[in-house]
Fold this protein.
Amino acid sequence: MYIAREDSFLLLEQVRKHAKGRVLDMGTGSAIQALGAADRKAVKEVLAVDVDRGVIAKLKKIIHNPKITLKHSDLFSDVKGKFDTIVFNPPYLPQDKGIEDRALYGGRKGYEVIGKFFRQAGKHLADGGMILVVFSSFTGKDKVDDIIREAGFASKLLSSQRIFFEDLFVYLVRRK
């Protein structure tokens, strides 16, 4: 299970300001984003999904919020419908040799999972909907900007934070 860290808290600030309607918490991990969204009056329901079945099983034992549904899904593979808000704290670090951690590493260069997500996200975003996403300078900000643009979206930087040797960025993303 992913333990909430600086990236999670930076994203959570924006979830607490912007989440509305039907919310999808993609890659829920610790479920901090799902819980933050569910606290908002503007949020009707939250679907929190994760690729790790064990994470979902653990969360089902500790989360009893009627607004939150927990489900196993590899990105959008088992997600149906459209959402007003999609929240994503993706694995975004470039792969370290010999270390496997799906919660941290977003592929060989770090942005592969983000690319796959944005290529699929449009089918699940309601008209006027938004995506809130966090990533690191280690991922390659210019590359993430290209991925978002190529998928037909426009982004706005909502917040950033310098941590040691990296910068964290939270974007609000909408269709062009």
Summary: The chain has one domain: 6-169. The mean pLDDT is 91. The radius of gyration is 15 Å. The domain at 6-169 is CATH 3.40.50.150 (Rossmann fold).
